[in-house]
Design a protein that fits this description.
The protein is an alpha+beta fold and 163 residues long. Helices cover 38% and strands 17% of the residues. The protein has two domains: 77 residues, Ubiquitin-like (UB roll); 82 residues, Orthogonal Bundle (DNA polymerase, domain 1), CATH 1.10.150.120. Bound molecules: FE2/S2 (inorganic) cluster (2 copies).
Length: 163
């Protein structure tokens, strides 16, 4: 197997690496580029902890080859918002107590963000479906769904006021 030079925009910052063609995006992000907010859970597509946005769509970075991300935009939870200017989903997760150990939270928030990009006002069932690939061992999911639903409800209110 050979190597390939790649350049990935991570949260808007161009990062370059020479990677094995079989290396996963998860391994390259964490081990080559120091992007450790992306979590390594199962490493085989079962838990969603490694979720990132690739050109805006949620993917499991453990199932994505790093070379597939060449020239593309990767967004992690740090790119969605900051402690000073959090994304509404990040604020809502904190407000609802939807973050306990936090291991799943990055992937959960990014899966929700991907859903709401396509459908800003999802139903509770659509929210559950969108995060069905993200496992949480702590919260029992209710607080997570509540947190996402509040952001959807706020978007629905704004839509109604604008119509
Ligand atoms: S680490 Fe990728 S799905 Fe679990
Ligand atoms: S908050 Fe601990 S795994 Fe979800």
């Amino acid at each position: 197997m050979g190597t390939q030079e790649i350049e990935i925009q991570v949260n808007g910052q161009p990062l370059r690496a020479t990677v094995a063609v079989e290396a996963t995006l998860l391994d390259v992000l964490r081990n080559e580029l120091g992007v450790v907010e992306v979590k390594n859970g199962c490493g085989q597509g079962d838990c969603g902890a490694c979720t990132v946005l690739l050109d805006g769509d949620a993917v499991n970075s453990c199932l994505t080859l790093a070379v597939q991300a060449d020239g593309r935009q990767v967004t992690t939870v740090k790119g969605l918002g900051s402690p000073e200017a959090p994304h509404p989903l990040q604020e809502s997760f904190v407000a609802h107590g939807a973050v306990q150990c936090g291991f799943c939270s990055s992937g959960m928030v990014l899966s929700a963000a991907s859903l709401m990009k396509q459908n800003p006002t999802p139903t509770r069932a659509e929210i559950r479906e969108a995060i069905s690939g993200n496992l949480c061992r702590c919260t029992g999911y209710t607080k997570i769904v509540d947190a996402i639903e509040e952001v959807a409800n706020n978007a629905r209110l704004l839509e109604e006021r604008a119509s």
